[in-house]
Structures
1.
Amino acid sequence: MDNFLGKIKTNFSKAKDEAEKYSKLAIQKTSNLVSQTKYNFAVNDAENKIVTVMAEIGEYVYSEYLSGAEFPADVAAKCEDIDALKEEIASLKERIADLKDATVCSSCGEYNSSENIYCAKCGEKLRQTPAADVDVTPAASDTEEDTAEEE
Ligand SMILES: [Zn+2]
């Protein structure tokens, strides 16, 4: 019996030693992981800063292009890509504005109530003539012809 208990005790202390060993290892691994995470954050941070600076360089080049500066053909082509994308954005915003029954300012991109004649943000004129009628009864008019009669 003593022998049996002694064996249990020995096994227990062995297990305890093992557990301590593993928990020390785990702490080491954890602090290793914490360091890795820290370094990864630092790498991401630096990468994001590069992206920001790249964007700033791009914005500088693009604004120079807009004011007529000469650039190598491939750089100019990239600027033209931006022009095309800006046009696409403008037309998409127009579509959103139609859905929202709003008017997009061509100068600042602000959404304005379709009743506005001038942009609420920058004061740009939103259209040439005020709308003939702003229909407040949407259920009654589901055809476009209603508004087209007064031209
Ligand atoms: Zn505006």
Note: The first strand starts at residue 102 and ends at 104.
2.
Amino acid sequence: MGCEETRRDSRKDVNRPKNTVQLFYRRLFEHFGPQHWWPGETPFEVAVGAILTQNTAWTNAAKAIAGLKQAGLLDPKVLDRVSLDRLAGCIHSAGFFNQKAERLKRFVRYLHRKAGGRIESLRKIPAGQVRSELLALSGIGPETADSILLYALDKPVFVVDAYTRRIFSRHCLVDRETSYDQLQRFFYENLPHQRALFNEYHALLVALGKGFCHKSRPLCSQCPARNLGRLRLEAGVIAR
Ligand code: SF4
């Protein structure tokens, strides 16, 4: 049975998406436990990590952060003053290091301009305003901006990523082509707006994506979400 048929079948149950989204959370939390996101000793480190992990595995971003720490650069003032070349050299392991060095510079300049270089001061500005301003910085997309808002600035913002889209479209809860903003709205409509919940939920979806919901050969038979609603995999994907 496909997703369209599923929607027709569930018309009477108007609460189904909400129930399923919340059930997903409970099931994942029971299976994986708390994820303690985002790893980082300071909010500034978390924001830097959100930029460094773009298009690369977290392990590579973590090595770049270690490189910045070793060089004494993980500080807004120092990062603002250091040369682009030196910065790029320190974050080599994160990939796209020239682009990422420029993005870090832009972010730090914004932090100084807007909040005197203090993440704590940035927290006092409404989330919507900071989000728009971060998105206006070249190289900062919605996932990075929302990761900074949620994990560095403690704002109740739901972070969407490729795993989120894959998991919830496979379970017929959203369309595969849904935009970032539509997908984010789906969670706002179906979850209480709680920062701690948004923090944990995104981290659990990443754990599910990494551990089970692989792109071409998902491990559905062992997955903690295997019987949550209907399932429809993309053509050519083989569940194991
Ligand atoms: S692995 Fe299968 S059961 Fe698990 S979330 Fe992905 S599609 Fe659903």
Note: The chain has a mean pLDDT of 93.
